[in-house]
Amino acid sequence: MKRTLLFSIALLSSVSFCATAQEKKPLKPSDINRIPTVSDPQLSPDGKWVAYSVSEVDTAKDKRVSHLWMQSWDGKESLELTHGAEAASSPRWSPDGKYLSFVSSRDSKNGGQIWLIDRRGGEGVKLTDIKGDLGDYAWSPDSKKIVMVIGDPENKGKEEPKTPKPIVIDRYHFKQDIEGYLQHLHQHLYLFDLETKKLDTLTKGDKDEESPVWSPDGKTIAFVSNRSADPDKNENTDIFTIDAHPNATMLQITSWKGPDRNPQWSPDGRYIAYLRSTSDADYMMYDENLLCITDVLGSGKKILTQQLDRPVGDPVWAKDNKNIFFLVADDRERYVASVNINNGKITTIAKGEYSVTDINESLNGSLVVQKSDPYTPAELFALEGSKLRRLTFHQQAWLNTVNLAHVEGFQSTSVDGTLVNGIVLTPDSNSKKLPFILFIHGGPVGQDEFSFDATRQVLASAGFAVAAVNYRGSTGRGLDYCKAIFADWGNKEVKDLLGAVDQLEKLGIADPNRLGIGGWSYGGILTDYTIATDTRFKAAASGAGSALQLSMYGSDQYALQYENELGVPWKNADKWIALSYPFFHADKIKTPVLYMSGLKDFNVPTIGSEQMYQALRSQGIPTELILYPNSFHGISKPSYQVDRLQRYVEWYDKYLKK
Prior knowledge:
By secondary structure, this protein is α+β, with helices and mostly antiparallel strands. It has eleven helices and 41 strands.
């Protein structure tokens, strides 16, 4: 294999020493372009190397580009494998250890293709030339075949006509952020033979298949699919298996009415571990994943983590066939645990004020994880017993040039007695009575964790105290805590947010006369709810939010949630109007607001921001509306990300630092 040796540990140490001699400066908005994203660790079968992706910003082209790296298990070598303008991602080792595959659109008119790097030497070689969107893929245990998830190509693989045809919509779920208006296109499983280069169809029809995994003997593939009459109207995915040859018959393994996902074979092939929802509703926003196992015929199902009352993820079998490693989201942390499938004993493996977001295992049982803490974006670590040993140092160069804000946890009590946990960032550990920003996470399901937070770090570095609050509706505090806001938006969450502000005022951190608030997505929605409830905030930034909820039905992608949680508007108008109180009480809002939206956002469309902008403008409340062209719900263009942060800083400076 052709390799470029970029640095050894000794060289890295010398670079770090030189960098520390530089003058460190506060983190500013443009600095986020210097933060690499490390992801997708994949251990070689012998456990001696970790392949992974690193994406960095190309400021000239205003986009992120990912490339492949390898890190030796002993930590002595770090190698960049791919270069150039075309991205490379999704590294996967062949089980015999001879090849490292990846996905790239280089030299392709049909989008991403699978490429191979021969570890015995030579350049990367393009393996496939498929039409359609290549999704997930996995090597067979004998390294002779690859199962792929391929989406039906638009325009049947032909060039788009100069005058596009009218879009015909006849689906219940008819729009989706990034994907746009949904046609009858599906994704199916295909088998690729490496020797003959033949691509065989494994599944077909009007349903979708995803998440394929091979049985250890290479004879069977487990996958996930929703085979209900109309998958648009529920989330009832199940686990299926199918023999690894064309025209095989599939076998349904699970039958839970809610979603079953993420199948993982035990090393001996006797069991399949998977994640199952707690609720069996057609749609439930406020839910937790449970870890379960079943035998390969779908009998003897067992729930393994219900007693935790915490959402779990990323199951990985131990080589003893008796234990399963997994991740637990728990009160601002995400940690590694294991469960014994025979006695149900759950053991905490690695836990602390940090967040683990990925686990990967080699054939010899070595484990690598991806970990972040409040002062370090994600890097890769070897998990040895209960100890974490750092393997990669991609963040070190830029971290050596900046001063980061101080981060610590806090607890507050809401007006109804609910205990709420949060995180507060300040320019330094001694900061008192600062201009303050309550920056609210989206979701609402999810949690703010002890992980690196670039947005809040930038705001704190600009001289503000910044709080992250896990209001009711967040995960990490149990199912009842998460479900507390069902059909009751903007009530308990606002109580929790205001209680946190009260506590930070009592602690002398937040200046009660200089309070700001903001957030994106559900964080933007809660910003509107909060400023319509309490006029103490002197500045707000509501991004990708909505307030006139009655108008969102049919304009966004959440009809299934609305009908299951709120009921249809024409039968439950009073409830919809009650949940739209920020708009119908816009005359109570006195806070200057910066509204923001991506113009291609189908998740929370721009109309949600436009309506509130117009309502406040009509009353003479200082407000601006920032629209990002060709952008979806998550603003991904680097220059727009920097622009958004800069506008936050300037808006809060204007109203909170007078």
